Amino acid sequence: MKINKAAIAVSLAVALSTSLVHAESQLQDMSDPMAVYTQAGIGYTDKGLNLKIGQSYDTGNPNTMGMNVLEIKGFAGDELGWSNRDSDDSIDSLRYRNFNVDMENGRGAQVDVDVNFTDIGTQGTASYSLIQALPQMGPLNLYPLAGLGAAFGESFDTTNDGALQAQDRWDLHGIFYLAGMYGKLEITDNIWLNYNPMYTGTLSGSDPFNHAGMEGDDSVLIHEAAVSYQINERTNIRYFANWTENINYANGDHRIEMNYQF
C-alpha cells in the first residue's frame, strides 16, 4: 500500500488550522506542560524542519480545557538537516495529540498517535495516558504519567540474509505500557528546564514485537530534555534533545523550536 505522505500532511494541517487565525483565548503559561492554548511552531532539526499547529477547543465543560496538536516532522532533511545519518526531503513522521485537562484537580488525559515512515514501511503507535500535576515544590514541578498503547503498521518478514522486508498488509503488532513524567525547573521568570523520562515495555503481541519491539528489546528508557526562553508573553524559543538508553545524547535527535501563542 503506497501512502502519499505530503497529501496526508497537508490535509491534516489544513483541517486543523482552518480556524487558527480566528482563535481568541486567555494567554496561558507556555512553560506549563499541561497548558492548553492555540499555537503554532516551527523547528529546525538535525533531520530537517518540523511544523506544529495546536488548536484549543471548547469541551462543553467549564472546568476542563481541550487541545488538538498536529506535528509534521523531518521534511527538507537533505537540504537543511545536519545529521550524519541518511536524510531526505520527504516527511519522516506525523504526530497527532488530543489533550484534555481538568483545571480543578490538575489531571490530564492524552491521546497520542505517532506515524513514522521508515525503511521497513509505515509504522506507528497510538497510546492513551493520564497525567497528574503534583503540588509545586519551590521552583520544581512534576507531572507523573502512565498509559497503554498499541503498535501498528505495515507487516514485515525477515529475509534469508536477515534483513526486514515490508509486506503488502497492515498489522496490529502488539500492546505496550508507558510510565514516566514531565519535569519543569524554573530558573528565572523567562528561563526554565525540562526533563521528561519515559519507560516503555511490551505487554503482548507478535514474537518480533514482544522480544524486539523496543529498540531491539522488550523495553526501553527514553529521555527528553529541553532548555527554554520566553521572549515575550506569546513567543518562546526552545532547544530539545531526545535520546535513549541505547542511543547516547550526541547521536540522539536535536532541534531548536520557536512557538507562538495566539
TrEMBL record:
Key word Signal present: yes
Statement: the UniProt record of this protein carries the keyword Signal: yes
Signal peptide extent: 1-23
This protein's UniProt keywords: Signal
The protein, known as: Porin
Source organism of this protein record: Vibrio ouci
